[in-house]
Amino acid sequence: MNKCKRxxxxxxxxxxALHDENEAAKKLESALNRIDKQExxxxxxxxxxxxxxxxxxxFVQREKSIGRLRSYxxxxxxxxxxILRQREVIIQAQNSYANLRAExxxxxxRRRSLAKVSEQHEREEDTxxxxxxxxxxxxxxxxxxxxxxxxRS
Length: 153
Hints:
Elements: H1 6-62, H2 66-144
């Protein structure tokens, strides 16, 4: 019977665990890229808001129409709401990142644990192999000194 060693059986499990860990790392990287993208979008909105606030000051100083002033104020209110929503999107992206990081850490820990177990099995298998070799050598040397090979005294 061809018996597969424990370390060999674990190798395929470790390979799958490494694949899972790598996939989790890719998701983590993607989540980090989403956060960066959303933060850049927020910076753009804030810059846009600052520009329009400056224009609003100038607009108020020269514009006399209440309707146009209200319209401009409404636009600035909508922009402020967009900024608030963008901050919420960033918070959600950060929460997603935190969850994905925890998942990745768990998968990494599992793979490392499996690797340690595999290394322990390999050491045990090496020890067993060395004992078997030693047993074989002892048996051979014992046969050479067997009663049929008596030496004269």
